[in-house]
């Protein structure tokens, strides 16, 4: 059974859930092994001393800033859902958006499919009708991060090698994904080049038609603002963390490194950018003169308080969202 079919049916197969759990645990384990190795190389005492500088209130504030990001992006998801015509409320959309975080580091970003499955159960809308919502949400994230990276690089005293190309690629991808004509043209060209997957290309063309609901400049500007505020909140958290650890490299530079590393991690193809984002972050901090005894714990802490915190929230909300969607489907039946 394909992944889409298993997601669109009832609860995912046990074997698939086990695989996703093992992937999640394996990725987390590999990253932790790498960070622990770096910490050991720099000296446990130095690493422990840096972590000891943080109070519980400072860590909680980092988590609050991450919540700002999730809530602003969740609000954006709700606005997109309403614009598409979905009969959902704010609480319902936030439940779907946050619950999907549980699958952030699973292969193929299954979290997106899970959200679509919940929508199908609760509203009756099939995957083809809700696909534009997922597409425009991801495109809006790319646009917001590209704008932040471009602004941060312009204000930073030092540039980041590859920063401008990455920002341009993210901006172009975000633009193409929200242009119905371009996306439809891509699907047509893809069908001609490959000569295969006819049903897939047809579905992409149908989804492209639905994207016409998101072409309003006012809507996309508002979405970009919400995304920029959300991602800057996490970038600011990274800046504060470095200041608290005694390595203030400047707000613009810290934000640029955080956003670039997040985008670079995504380009590696690894679920959630795990591994690639951490490596990029440590390397860029080293170029700024931040010693390993600071960059390693800073990277570990910011990833725990952003990516892994989001996954934790998703794991808490996922069972609630799953039960609610099943109950709603039975009620309608």
TrEMBL record:
Keywords: Cell membrane, Membrane, Transmembrane, Transmembrane helix. It is a multi-pass membrane protein. Coiled coil: none annotated. The keyword Membrane applies. It is found in: Cell membrane. InterPro entries: L-PG_synthase/AglD (IPR022791). Its main location: membrane. It comes from the Bacteria. The chain crosses the membrane at residues 21-42, 54-72, 142-161, 167-190, 211-232, 238-260, 267-287, 299-321. This is Lysylphosphatidylglycerol synthase transmembrane domain-containing protein. It comes from Aliiroseovarius salicola. The lineage of its organism: Bacteria, Pseudomonadati, Pseudomonadota, Alphaproteobacteria, Rhodobacterales.
